[in-house]
């Protein structure tokens, strides 16, 4: 069943757990999320990264929103959809106009006051349309850069409080040792910082860069205030492996028409992965 991302985060917050948002670049990945959630009996979020549309043309914004909502309605568990990092007001407004009920305005590259101004403008406009907005403070960098280079960019609790109060964002992405991409070494989340941020603001907190963080750390982070957890790199890697395996098998048959069977092959490979991640990490009752 379709549910808004905002409501899913509040459901998670009440139960001291997190809902997982899986980056999905196409229908096969999105369908695996919906049906993996159904198999697990847990909520989930189908999430688009804007560059998959703007640069790689894997979908269109309006078509993606319609697809995600239709998939959500096919299953009996709550499934939402969300558009991840967009860095301009125009981009975020376009995405909302296309049918997304939840978007992210990422102005974290700017200083605090400018971040508040830019994010606040978007929130004001989109709240009038019933669209929720995720912001970011601190900066979630790239895993390849290493943790030591990122520590100065970790989210500060007082800045988080000020940002949430002044922008009225519906969710806040924070930096506590997490990063996008593949980690060079096992990350260590700053749990004390997370607890301090959770005490400073009642806004649902979001953890980006989830691939490669040990499950034990993730579960602790969920208990301490993370309500939404973004999973992209590892899910995309599973997709790549499934496509690669299909091509290897199909080459032996030398039948180009077999490409029609690839989406179903990939979905069958991805769905158990989604189910396992939800069962292992999400403690919804």
TrEMBL record:
> Which parts of the sequence bind Zn(2+) 2?
106, 136
Keywords, ordered alphabetically: Metal-binding, Zinc
- Spell out the catalytic residues: 84 (proton donor)
Please verify whether the record's keywords include DNA-binding: no
Is RNA-binding tagged as a keyword? no
Q: Which GO terms describe its biological process?
A: carbohydrate metabolic process
Provide the binding site for dihydroxyacetone phosphate: 181, 209-211, 230-233
What are the binding positions for Zn(2+) 1 in this chain?
85, 180, 208
UniProt xrefs under InterPro entries: Aldolase_TIM (IPR013785), Class_II_FBP_aldolase (IPR050246), FBA_II (IPR000771)
Bound how, and how many: what does the cofactor note say? Binds 2 Zn(2+) ions per subunit. One is catalytic and the other provides a structural contribution.
Q: Which Gene3D superfamilies match?
A: Aldolase class I
Under the heading SUPFAM superfamilies, the entry gives: Aldolase (SSF51569)
Task: State what protein this is by name.
Answer: Class II fructose-bisphosphate aldolase
